[in-house]
Specification:
The complex is a heterodimer of chains A (about 325) and B (about 280). With about 325 residues, chain A is an alpha/beta fold. Helices cover about 50% and strands about 10% of the residues of chain A. A 5-stranded parallel β-sheet of chain A has the order 2-3-1-4-5. The longest helix of chain A has 25 residues. Chain B is an alpha/beta fold and about 280 residues long. Chain B is about 50% helix and about 10% strand. Chain B is globular and about 50 Å long. Classes of the chains: A alpha/beta (about 325), B alpha/beta (about 280). The interface between A and B is medium-sized, with 34 and 31 residues.
Chain lengths: ~325, ~280
């Protein structure tokens, strides 16, 4: 499974790089401080929170590709979907508003500190080679935990944030393909995958609606976190990344204040380019499908396009303001 | 906060945990934390949403780093408890009762993270639990009042539109909550006690004495008797009791009047294993 292939590569590379000198640098601009929280040891001795870069958005936006490129340079590692954001979904806990609730607003300073320590402990145990201000950078690929992006960025205000987006119509089309009979997601998730497959096959319109809702929830949460975050941050659109990968990567690192050698970056971009993926690993039902922006025009029915556009309208207008498909043609 | 001075109450909703924790919280030196839901916070991700990723070292709750995140869970709980109950922090003679039936899904994680703590596994016949929930989620009941107080309207419930499906869902929830609480209970090596709601109703004072004895917590019998008396069913005003109210009928075996034979069959099929272990005399419905 390609997603696991990547993780195996990550693991091997991490092991090897622990023995190498790390490329480091200083970040630009003011970095917010965690001043109000119950902060303990980890931030002193381990990975510097300012050297963490969170990637939020949703699945099928190219986050695996982006993370693979970000992990290539020496001194840069990727924490592959810790799912810590899933804990801290404010919407899930809306109904538990009382003062007794563990995440009650009256005690926010306390539990925000706990969230911070929870994450830093986990990062330090997994990436000890990145410890210290000059220890290197950790990208946290967390699209599936985007519902908790706001609390994570509030707990780690010094960290950088990437809001990775993609046209919701293409995201939903990609999920529909992945979850159909024999699709990579169906194979990967076992029983749960088969249930999703069933919906994709038997009631694709309901499947489309459900994934459009999920897009709104995930990317909407990430966007709110992005808007509130006062530290370094950047919006990266999958379409820009496809159109000019190197240019977009350079812009991203520049906005994040992370020094990056251009030649090394170019090498990483080249290594993970679409063209370098073997043909037999690409195509319908595979993890690497077609990487064609606006492929939804071929993949979705008119009704499905309308459904996605209606549900995700606020985000579509924000990031893809050309208007609904009906008006274009 | 000393973890050994924490007493956890796990089980599931509608097992009498409010009553039990009220009696315990009444006694001098005890404070009560009413449903922090920390067990739900961690248990939901670990057991439900990412159950397939336990062996993945990148997963925040992955087995390769289990000791590390259990320690983080421990600090999460203790820091929050200390902030809320400063009167207990550092005291040998004071106890914190954490009523956590709806966080029972995460009981195995919490008890492993806090092995010094004491644990009550509070159970009740699943047929009565489901019957109580069926009543609670009908239109115009106490759950709707509770939501209204929080500024929200209760959405239409399956309890009204598809009661058999509601019953099935509640039976599954019982299995999830009580099943995990029971697993935590069996693994826990510290002071612990299994309490049946039916025993608590039949002889409250004796059952309470047994709880304190098993948990190895000293209690003055006269004070305990006063607390039991104060919170007895008989002292609850009549107008606060009955159908659709939080205090419904407190009658073990009431499911025979409340559930249809089909619903009894559903609960017994879904929760059969736990029912057989905890209540070995089977239904004749």
């Amino acid at each position: 499974m390609p997603v696991f292939r990547y993780r195996t590569v990550f693991d091997v590379v991490r092991g090897a790089k622990a023995f190498l000198n790390l490329e480091t640098g200083v970040t630009r601009g003011a970095v917010p401080q965690a001043t109000r929280m119950n902060v303990q040891g980890p931030s002193e001795d381990g990975i510097a929170p300012r050297n963490m870069i969170w990637i939020f958005g949703t699945g099928r936006t190219g986050s695996t590709w982006l993370a693979a490129m970000m992990e290539e340079p020496e001194g840069h590692e990727v924490w592959f979907e810790p799912r810590v954001g899933t804990f801290f979904d404010p919407q899930r806990f809306e109904r538990f508003g009382g003062k007794h609730f563990i995440l009650a607003s009256q005690y926010k300073d306390v539990w925000l500190g706990s969230i911070r320590n929870f994450i830093l402990d986990g990062a330090n145990a997994r990436f000890p080679e990145l410890a210290g201000e000059n220890g290197g950078y950790l990208a946290v690929k967390e699209p599936g935990g985007s519902v908790g992006a706001s609390l994570i960025m509030e707990a780690l205000p010094e960290s950088g944030m990437v809001l990775l987006t993609r046209d919701p119509r293409d995201v939903v089309a990609s999920w529909l393909d992945a979850t159909r009979k024999g699709g990579w997601q169906t194979e990967r998730r076992g029983e749960e995958g088969r249930r999703a497959e069933s919906l994709a096959e038997t009631n694709p319109n309901a499947f489309v609606r459900r994934h459009a809702d999920a897009y709104l929830q995930h990317v909407g949460s990430a966007k709110r976190a992005y808007d509130a975050h006062e530290g370094r941050k950047v919006v990266v659109r999958y379409e820009d990344l496809r159109a000019d990968t190197l240019g977009t990567m350079k812009r991203m690192y520049s906005e994040l204040g992370v020094p990056m050698d251009e030649a090394r970056l170019a090498k990483a971009v080249e290594k993970h380019s679409w063209e370098n993926i073997p043909e037999e690993e690409k195509g319908q039902g595979k993890f690497y499908r077609k990487a064609t922006p606006e492929g939804w025009r071929e993949d979705l029915t008119r009704h499905q396009v309308k459904t996605v556009e209606q549900i995700t309208a606020p985000l579509l207008e924000e990031f893809y303001p050309t208007g609904p498909a009906e008006q274009e043609g | 906060m000393r973890p050994e001075n924490i007493v956890w109450i796990f089980g599931t909703a509608r097992t009498g945990s409010s009553w039990l924790s009220a009696m315990m919280g009444e006694i001098g030196g005890y404070s009560r934390w009413h449903e922090p839901l920390v067990g739900h916070l961690f248990g939901n991700l670990y057991f439900v949403r990412a159950g397939h990723r336990h062996e993945d070292e990148h997963f925040i709750l992955g087995t390769p780093h289990r000791e590390l995140w259990l320690d983080a869970v421990r600090r999460f709980v203790l820091d929050s408890a200390a902030a809320r109950f400063p009167e207990i922090a550092g005291r040998n003679d004071r106890y914190l009762i954490i009523k956590e039936p709806q966080g029972s899904m995460g009981a195995p994680l919490l008890m492993e993270a806090l092995p010094e703590s004491r644990m009550i596994l509070l159970v009740r016949d699943p047929r009565d639990v489901v019957a109580s929930n069926l009543d609670a989620h009908k239109k115009g009941t106490w759950t709707a009042d509770l939501m209204r107080k929080g500024g929200r309207e209760k959405p239409p419930s399956l309890a009204e539109s598809r009661p058999d499906d509601f019953v099935k869902g509640q039976a599954r929830r019982y299995v999830r909550d009580v099943g995990n609480a029971k697993r935590a209970y069996e693994a826990h090596r510290g002071p612990k006690v299994l309490v049946k709601y039916e025993e608590l109703r039949a002889d409250t004072l004796a059952t309470m004495k047994r709880i304190y004895s098993a948990l190895e917590i000293p209690v003055e019998e006269a004070e305990l008797a006063r607390s039991v008396e104060k919170h007895s069913w008989e002292r609850i005003p009549a107008e606060q009791k009955g159908e659709g109210k939080f205090h419904r009928k407190a009658k073990p075996g009431g499911w025979r009047e409340d559930l249809t034979p089909e619903q009894v069959e559903i609960v017994e099929r879904v929760a059969g294993s736990l029912l057989g272990e905890l209540y070995p005399v089977r239904s004749t419905a």
